[in-house]
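Q: what does this look like with MRU bound?
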Amino acid sequence: MSDARALPPTIRWVGEVDGHLELLDQTRLPHHLEVLQLRDVDGVIAAIQRLSVRGAPAIGVAAAYGLVLGMRDRHPLPEAFVATVREVATRLFAARPTAVNLRWALDRCVGAVRDEPTLARLFHEATAIHADEEAMSRRMGEHGKGLIQPGATVLTHCNTGRLATAGDGTALSVMFAAWRDGVRFSVLADETRPLLQGARLTALELAREGIPVEVLADGAAAGLIVGGEVNLVLVGADRIARNGDVANKVGTLGLALACAVRHVPFYVVAPLSTFDAATPDGRAIPIEQRDATEITEFQGQRIAPLGVAARNPAFDVTPAALVSGIVTDVGILRPPFGTAIKTALADVR
Ligand code: MRU
């Protein structure tokens, strides 16, 4: 692999409605470049669950295409079309519970076929969702790039770049946009236990773009923030509740708490597809619990003593009070977030 810009697309639909879905297998990165070719919905569900495709916006786009594949195999009568779409969507929605982009994309697909119950209409909606997510990524980068000052050290968590979205990313889109404008800065990337999205994916994306990046153990971040070595923290989100509470990769809350101690700006970057107006606050956000072996084992080798159990929540919730601002595709939202979110969502719906 010579250059990240030459990586295959994270998600690509090949051909017309009778075509297939290609996903860059992120479980194999950075050392192996493998593209999965998927032709049925079960394959898409499995790819989402094992994190071959991951990151909230990317999961939403993959699920929309998965719905097309699921419906293509079923041939329901026209009068049963919408009900069958709902059935397949319910299976896809259960693949990962926290990222609300999954539900956003599937709800959009259901809404589209309610007006025109055909596979062609469903396929059209899936490709429109793909294009919209790409455009939202670009706009987040433009709105947020001014947050990064020349010479800054920016800390980030998990992977929020081209591998997590249909475009340049969320938090990483902001970094790419600033870098393209000639702003020079460096990045600290949390390794992001247990699946190492920071060490494997964020480091890959930034390094290949020429942005200086150092990987650090998640447990080192708070010390560096409180010690004055970090000027800005930029993270993504998997779901933002109506009051501005933010669910994101486990470990995000600790960063926000450290930032509050030292008054370091803590910004979340997320498209409007990540906001969940139906969820009042963070307590109502379902947190995905993943298999304990992701904690007790490393690369298939048992690490913890036999018989010892583990907890493996994939996400945590940062209270809105700890968030300095939320960079969206329609601008930067500031506290009080309840009002700002309501206005932003009303303007687009
Ligand atoms: O478990 P993952 O790798 O899907 O978690 C991803 C994150 O937590 C990202 O920060 C989030 O999806 C938002 S940025 C695209």
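The longest helix spans residues 119-144. The pocket of MRU is lined by residues 51, 54-57, 99, 158, 160, 164-165, 170, 197, 236-238, 248-249, 314 (CB under 6 Å).
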